[in-house]
Amino acid sequence: MTKDILLYENGSGGEMKVMNNDLVLSETLYNQIYLALFGGNVEASTKGNELTNEERFDYWANQLFHRQRKGRQFNSITEKTLFNIVLNSSGRNEILRAIQKDLSFLNSIVDNEITVSIISKNRVEISIIMRKLSNLEDKTLQIIWDNSINEVIIKEII
Questions:
Q1: Residue 46 domain-assigned (yes or no)
Q2: Separation of alpha carbons 97 and 27, rounded Å
Q3: pTM for the whole thing?
Q4: For residues 37 and 29, is the Cβ–Cβ distance under 8 A?
Q5: Domain assignment present for 96
Q6: How far apart are CA 35 and CA 17, in angstroms?
Q7: Using one digit for the tens of pLDDT, what is the confidence trace for 80-98?
Q8: DSSP string over 76-129
Q9: Does residue 54 form part of some domain?
Q10: CATH code: domain of residue 18
Q11: DSSP-derived 3-state class of residue 58
Q12: pLDDT digits (tens, 9 = 90+) for 35-68
């Protein structure tokens, strides 16, 4: 596993954790999950046919690092879906499919079980249970999305 800067949710977007004037590092997959679902490139997904002389609205690193490897590109389909759906049973299914697509890059590392629940007229709960392939302890990442303000309000590891 590689080290990464620890991100946490403070109710207004992801923040980098700082302690004793230094960035805190993490060795879990939770940062990758958070970025895959809520990476912020909601204007456009990388299609591979973008013109070089036009402004791009997809994630800049997709073209730079993963041009030939579409499966490694981050497109935050989940966040885009949450911005554009109605919170009903059909919308819940669309969110679930988007999460599955965004997290497909993890399928060779962990087994995951994804649950999407509408918990109020404006809130969606996303639970991702990760089961490591080596049968270590299961961990659950719980995310609450508030549709009225279009942002994650809670991100907890339970």
A1: no
A2: 27
A3: 0.74
A4: no
A5: yes
A6: 15
A7: 899 889 999 999 999 999 9
A8: -HHHHHHHH--SSHHHHHHHHHHHHHHTGGGTTTEEEEEEEEE-SSSEEEEEEE
A9: no
A10: 3.10.450
A11: coil
A12: 788 876 666 566 666 667 666 656 666 665 655 6
Does residue 126 fall inside a structural domain?
yes
What range defines the domain where residue 127 resides? Answer: 4-40+76-157
Farthest CA pair distance, the chain: 49
| DSSP letter, residue 15 | E
CB-hemisphere CA count at 13 Å for 33? Answer: 28
Token readout for 61 is: 């690193």
Q: For tokens 């949450």, what's the residue?
A: 82
Q: How many domains does the chain have?
A: 1
User: DSSP states of 120-157 as a string?
Assistant: SSSEEEEEEEEEETT----EEEEEEEETTTTEEEEEEE
For residue 71, the number of C-alpha atoms closer than 13 Å in the C-beta half-sphere is: 5
* Dist. CA 104–CA 136, nearest whole Å: 20
In this structure, are residues 39 and 74 in contact, taking their beta carbons and an 8 Å threshold? yes
